[in-house]
Amino acid sequence: MSKLASESPAQGDPILTVDDLRVSFATEDGVVKAVDGVSFELTAGEVLAIVGESGCGKSVTAQTLTGLTRAPNAKISGSVSYRGKEINGLTDDQLRDVRGEQIAMVFQDPMSALNPVYRVGDQIAEMIRAHRDVSKQEARSRAVDLLRSVGIPNPDRRVHHYPHEFSGGMRQRVMIAMALALEPDVLIADEPTTALDVTIQAQILQLIDRLNRERDLAVIIITHDLGVVAEIADRVLVMYAGQVVEDATLDEIFYAPKHPYTWGLLGSLARLDQPRTARLAQIPGAPPSLLAPPAGCRFAPRCSHVFDRCAELPPLEPRTGSAHLDRCWLDNEVKARHEG
Questions:
Q1: What mean pLDDT value characterizes the chain?
Q2: Number of H helices, E strands in the chain
Q3: Is this structure's pTM higher than 0.85?
């Protein structure tokens, strides 16, 4: 069931705060500015979708929240705080207490994330015992309960199976069960429905939605699929070329978008009221290189509304009297023409 036109969760104190996050990688060709000044907050029970084309920085943003971008060639600045405690800059040992315990991540490819030579029950139980003082039997029993909670049939038997004995959708459920093993407050799901057929995609999204409601679990979902966004998100961050270009509620993104890039993403969606022979709209051009992004608006080279001021980088600012943010110099009158 779509969350469009539905109520968002009540807003309280943020559980996760990201402020001016910047991540760059030194390469032979130069410095890649993968994430450039990203800021947002996440509250308990909220589902935040981070959307954009491949290479826009959304996955790097998510991975940085759990310290997974600490390569020797990476440079990270800005603030990431969990319940008011700064976690950017923690040592690897300190981060181990954050990963799984407070913030857990589900990766795009469960077959790569799961160890192929260990039974799934052993992998879940091992993670539990690494953080909890429990016996092997207790950890195995907990693994069975977790598999049951994510909808895997016959969990008492399936706990003894290897990853290759599960379908793609079932492996993704195993990954979600493992992510929930230590009862985190925040779940990050990086393209969790990629490569799954539409029926299985719907089941995975329904599972995440149920866990969000039942556990008051805060969720960050990384996706390029606006159909996924409509099904599960409360709020949406639209990223382009390493920056957030729009930050708004789900309804605002679909019914009152403000940024030309968001207009392009929505225009490329198939619609039921279109003729079957109609061609989908395309955003012309290609995203800029993150080695040398444009000095001004990064979307300007592809934008049909570009004008002189776009040579300056627009700030991410709200409309008057609204929390809806967009990074665009167009005036509100022009933006209003695209509402609905």
A1: 90
A2: 12, 12
A3: yes
